[in-house]
Amino acid sequence: MRDAAARRPTTLAEQIWARHEIRRSDRGESLLYVDRHFLDETCFFCFEDLERRGLAVRRPELTLAVADHTVSTIDRLAQPADAEIRAALDWVRTVPPALGIPTLAADDQRQGIIHVVAPEAGIVLPGLIVACSDSHTTTHGAFGALGLGIGMSESTHILATQTLWQRPYRQMRITVAGRLGFGVVAKDVIMAVVARIGAEGAAGHIVEFAGDAVTGLSMEGRMTLCNMSIECGARAGLIAPDDTTFSWLEGREQAPHGAAFTRAVAAWSTLRSHADAVFDRDVSLDAAAIAPMVSWGTSPEDADVVTEAVPDPAMAPSATRRNRMERALAYMGLTPGTPLDGIAVDRVFIGSCTNGRLEDLRAAASVVRGRRAVVPAIVVPGSRAVRRAAEAEGLDQVFRDAGLEWRDAGCSMCVAMNGDRVAPGERCASTSNRNFVGRQGQGARTHLMSPAMAAAAAISGRIIDVRRLPPAPAP
Amino acid sequence: MTPFRTLRGIAVPVDGANIDTDQIIPARFLLRRRTPDYGRYLFHDLRFDTAEQGRGFVLDRPDYRGAVILVADANFGCGSAREQAPWAIQAFGIGAIVASGFGDIFYANCLKNGLLPAVVEPDVAARARALLADHPGSAMTVDLDRRTIVLPDETSVSFAVDEAHRRRLLDGKDELSLTLADAAAIDAYEAKRRVELDWT
User: Fold this and answer.
1) Among B45, B57, B80, B102, which would you mutate to test the A interface (most chain A Cβ atoms within 10 Å of its Cβ)?
2) Are residues A246 and A311 in the same domain?
3) What's the pLDDT tens digit per position in B40-55?
């Protein structure tokens, strides 16, 4: 099988796929082995299904359960007022551990958003297949793993068999060549990609990100990039592992150690698309042309550089597009032609599986240091480990001194299931991943942007190009 | 799962590309039990205001009452992986969705629940929606055996659906019960995999 694979040039995703294929059905579907399976507190439905069928969890040790969607970011030990949340958090604290599944319940010191805690524990490694009933599982592609967002029926299927049926996807390569300019980060790159190819642009595809602007990113930046590849419809988004990946993994609790790590690096180093691999679609972006991005509508594809204005639906290429833009602008309360730079915001959210890592918090802190927020702003670390690391650097104090709220870890205002939400009609500058209608709360108006841009919005009370912010006052 | 062969009945048009699963069922209902009134959560915030008063959304217009087919636009069901989206659609009484494209995860979730996502060309979906808007309450037929859709004007068009899923829907077979027969192959793979991943 290896020899056959060696004869045909393949992409990284195809190589991972081939190594996990247990068998292929006569209808062309692959039965894939799943190396890592993640669950959250909403997955109790799967276990009820499993019980109804009288099935056991096949490989509990390859599974990880966390509490992230509904946890309080204010008081972790308080009983949630909401009975459904209380039941979900009780479920995750008791049921998965009883079945031998490693679990990070709400009060665990290692708790956090699954897409933050699994990588930081060294559980996600190059070449693995990772699945989770959460669409942002694409995050794990940052390690050269295949991260597949799935539904709960598929999660039940994995619990029982450790496998997943998938039909091969088309292959797309997105190359970002050149150097990113000052103030331009991974969030801007992925928002520019989504704006360019559209919310459906990569549907049915696995995307490999390449180019020096991608390989130049830190692991945190790579996770941001892959995380939002779902926003252009990608089935998965991944980056070939390299020295940046290996150094990040070295020493992590569940990554291989010592001689095993050396052997692993040797194996991981072979994981890359062949030079002559064929992609069904190739897209290129010029890194130097990317600027800080801001969304203006109700789909992540509705975004532009901050120096632009709210677009005019009259200029839309089609009647259906015009109609959608009109509805989006009506919901967002925006008038065509209004410069994005200058739109007043009511609230700021810094966090999420997209931008809740230490590098993100450092970027936000560097903007607010020595200044004052003029609108309510919350900073929600992606994990409690990130929270501790930020506190060790004094970032919590920087945020508090600037009037931002320093919270505990969780999904929080990105999905608005835990009580952290944006009020109807309020406008929020957010580092999250989705500006869908009602995503941050009923009637909430979301503007997606990078952590530094969101921090700049907090201190100016409006969307502002972080590059033209005057230097912070000396301490 | 009940086998799916042919579905005929009232079809309801839902306009707009990129209808995400947050629209199909808002996140605050994700922990709800699947009670008989689960269909109330479908498109909840498009159908009801904050005082739970109806907004006159197309699904609730008397002409479309009892709809069993939903006709949408491009990239329907994009966004979140929540399987509650197809659950809510089914609970409302819909058995097939016709659109020019679906979010990949939503598409798979529909099939696992016996809800048929039928892919047609964008102009076909647009024509169907226009016909349904002009003649509210008219019926369509989705024939999975022949992979055809009969539009309200009685014209017949073909649709695409993954062949493996088509067979499973027609047979009403559940994927997991089938995979359990592969246990020996999975065991063999795991044994080989342990050697391959000697660093783990």
Assistant:
1) B80
2) no
3) 999 999 999 989 999 9
The interface predicted TM-score (ipTM) is 0.96
Q: What share of chain A is helix, strand, coil (3-state, %, to 5)?
A: 40, 20, 45
Beta-carbon count within 10 A of A95 CB: 17
CATH number of the domain where residue A177 is located:
3.30.499.10
Question: Residue A82 is inside which H or E element, if any?
Answer: none
Number of domains in chain A: 2
- Between the two ends of chain B, the Cα-to-Cα distance in Å is 39
B185 touches chain A (CB under 8 A): yes
Structural domains of chain B sorted by starting position, each given as residue range(s) with its CATH number in brackets: 6-173 (3.20.19.10)
Are residues A66 and A39 in contact, defined by beta-carbon separation less than 8 angstroms?
yes
The verdict on a CB contact (< 8 Å) between A22 and B74 is: no
A156-198 pLDDT, tens digit each: 999 999 999 999 999 999 999 999 999 999 999 999 999 999 9
Triad B89, B91, B94: Cα angle to 5°: 50
List phi, psi (to 5°) of A219.
-60, -40
Tokens 């559940």 found at: B174
A273 lies in the same domain as A321: no
Tell me the C-alpha distance between B16 and A203, whole Å.
Answer: 17
Q: At what angle do helices A358-368 and A451-460 cross, to 10 degrees?
A: 30
Contact between B163 and A27 using a beta-carbon 8 Å cutoff? yes
Determine the 3-state secondary structure of A348 from DSSP.
strand
Residue with tokens 């839309």: A316
Q: Looking at A222, A252, A281, which one is the last position of a domain?
A: A281
